[in-house]
Amino acid sequence: MKRALFNWSGGKDSSFALHRVLQDGNYEIAGLLTSFNKANKRVSMHGIHQKLVEEQARQIGLPLYPLMLPQDLGMDKYNAYMEQKLLSYKKNGINVGVFGDIFLEDLKNYREKQLKSIGMEAHFPLWKKSTAELSQKFIDDGFKAIVVSVSGEKLDKSFVGRIYDESFIGALPIGVDPCGENGEFHTFVFDGPIFKDAVPFTIGETIKRSYELPNDDDSHCFQDDAAPPDECIYWFMDLQVPEKKTH
Which residue range(s) make up the domain with 55? Predict the structure, then answer.
């Protein structure tokens, strides 16, 4: 059985992919690999605090391998940093990286190329599955998730902070993927069949973030038939770690 490191975002695709891998039993999952912003100790993708991800790992029963990345890390430096880290894992007998990607070809090719360059493999348990079927199966299997960020170009503020359920999926505008595979939204999973107990959290404030667009034609922040905006807008739900009660 090959030892693998699971690339963990804390969201629904990661959770469901891990569920599939654990069910299949073809890989020994050595731990969960998550990248954090070193300055604020949050997942860069959706702003979830490191302590909440640590609690996810604890409830799943797997060690967390945090990657603390400097802020404003360029792609070249990121690749070099990641390669160094992956090589250290490989020395410990980990030869496979597992990902929750579903249909983004460029991202899959990038991951495969990155791992192949150091003699590792990539595994995608959800690859090319129907996102409509995956989203329904995720709910039917008992997973529970909350929407923690949305792209303002695809969804309005009202979608952030909602529970990811059939009602949420049914309210999505035409063209928005039910799994958010195009970056329309991100989730935080707090319960489900891979968890011993639910991950506790409290609801914080809703935060608006604006990002300037790069000066190139590769930005996918806006829809093809819309006039390019000057910035990308994202809405975030700031989940909080519950305060421990003192007696």
Answer: 1-247
